[in-house]
Design brief:
The protein is α+β, with helices and mostly antiparallel strands. Helices cover 22% and strands 43% of the residues.
Length: 157
C-alpha cells in the first residue's frame, strides 16, 4: 500500500501483509487495545517512509480504552534491527481502538508529544497507526505528528 499526506507532501509505503498481521493481533486481543512500535527506513528523499516491521513489547498494560507499552527489551531489539541491511529504525507507534473509530485521542496526542520530547528518541515526526477493530473488521488510519498537530494520510491515487 502507498499513502500520502498532501498537506506535508509525505508518503508511507507498507506491505499489505504487515497490515494484515497487525489486524490479526488486534482481533486476537479484542475487546482490549493492543499495539507496538513501527520500524522501517526512510527513502533518499527523506519524505517517504517504508514501514517494514512491527515490534511487540515484552511488557504492556491493556484495557478496553487504553494501551500502554513498556520499553523493556526494546533497546536491544532496535539495536539489532539497526545493524541489518537496510538499517531499520523506529518510525512510530500503532495500536487498536476496539469498537471505536481510528481517530487519535487526547491520550494519543500526549504520547506523541512525549515521544518527540524524549531525548533518547531521535524522531521529530512519528507515524501513528490506529486500527479500528469491530467484529473482526479492520479499518486502519495513518497519521503523522508534526509541530504539535496530527495530519492524516490518504490512499495514493
Amino acid at each position: 500500500m502507498k499513502l500520502i499526506n498532501k498537506q506535508k507532501g509525505l508518503v508511507i509505503k507498507m506491505e499489505d501483509a504487515l497490515l494484515e498481521k497487525l489486524c490479526k493481533y488486534g482481533v486476537q486481543w479484542h475487546p482490549k487495545e493492543f499495539g507496538g512500535i513501527l520500524v522501517g527506513y526512510y527513502a533518499d528523499d527523506n519524505r517517504t517512509v517504508i514501514i517494514s516491521e512491527t515490534v511487540i513489547p515484552e511488557e504492556f498494560r491493556s484495557s478496553r480504552f487504553s494501551f500502554e507499552r513498556r520499553n523493556k527489551g526494546l533497546k536491544k531489539i532496535l539495536e539489532r534491527l539497526y545493524r541489518q541491511s537496510p538499517p531499520l529504525v523506529y518510525v512510530g507507534e500503532w495500536h487498536t481502538h476496539p469498537d471505536n473509530p481510528a481517530i487519535p485521542s487526547a491520550t494519543d496526542m500526549k504520547a506523541l508529544q512525549e515521544i518527540v520530547q524524549d531525548k533518547r528518541v531521535f524522531i521529530n515526526n512519528p507515524i501513528l497507526l490506529i486500527i479500528s477493530i469491530c467484529k473482526e473488521k479492520c479499518a486502519p488510519a495513518f497519521f503523522v505528528y508534526n509541530n504539535n498537530k496530527v495530519y492524516r494520510y490518504e490512499e495514493k491515487e
